[in-house]
Amino acid sequence: MDTTMDTPNQITFYDIASGPPVHPYAPNPWKARYALNYTHVSYTTQWVELPDVTATRKSLNLKACRRHADDTDFYTLPVIHDHSSDTLVGDSFDIALHLDTKSDRPLFRPGTTALHRGFNAYADSLFTSFVPLAAYYLPFNPDSAHISKAEFCRRAGRELSEFEIKGKARQDMLKAFEEGLVPLTAWFVKRDEGPFLEGREVMYADFIIGGWLQFFRNTLPEWSDLKSWHDGLFGKLFDALEEWADVQ
User: Fold this and answer.
1) Strand, helix or coil for residue 241
2) Model confidence pLDDT, tens digit, residues 192-228
3) Cβ 195 vs Cβ 243: under 8 Å
4) How far is CA 44 from CA 9, 13, 31, 222, in A?
5) Which helix or strand (DSSP H or E) is residue 74 part of?
6) Is pTM beyond 0.85 here?
7) CA 52 to CA 38: how far, in whole Å?
8) 3 state DSSP class of 217
9) Which of 90, 120, 134, 181 gives a 20 to 30 Å CA spacing to 127?
């Protein structure tokens, strides 16, 4: 894909490929996509096959922003290249902070950056605990699925078959997932006013949850159940976020 700047504020957004048809699933790139769409910046998407993520990030001279369980570098996406300032940003939260400086539609209310950072870590830890329910169903591109599966297993340190959870074990984990979301529901302080964490007004914290909901939408067979949990709280949020879910 040509990443040449067409407008002064053109951004290239690097996301993990899936499909076809394209239905991106990775939670952190989804956080960035929501933020890009919400702030109305002009951008194009560069799709990167999972086995090519490490090489792509290294080619952009970006360090790994995470570590594997064995303490080796974990190269991942999203990344944005802001051509207007020739700036590369390689972490979803830092991308949101960068975009917040470019738009008159703020992602963060004044004085909430640290709170958002802590909430992002909390949400990531919570939802990651239940990724085993979905990992077996990741929508790899069929043309490179065998390579992508091998790369995923290398990153996870487990065989893909170990993620095929069935029967009572699956039902127990789904129940634990539903119950595990109870503390998160307490963050919805104005649910009688609207679907977002603070009622009518969306903020970046909603996109943090939305990124994870998009992941489970694309990978969890019981997605319709998740949407109905807790009086449909997360389903209502997901539906409300569709306004900023355009895949470009």
Assistant:
1) helix
2) 899 999 999 999 999 999 999 999 999 999 999 999 9
3) no
4) 11, 6, 16, 32
5) strand 73-74
6) yes
7) 28
8) helix
9) 90
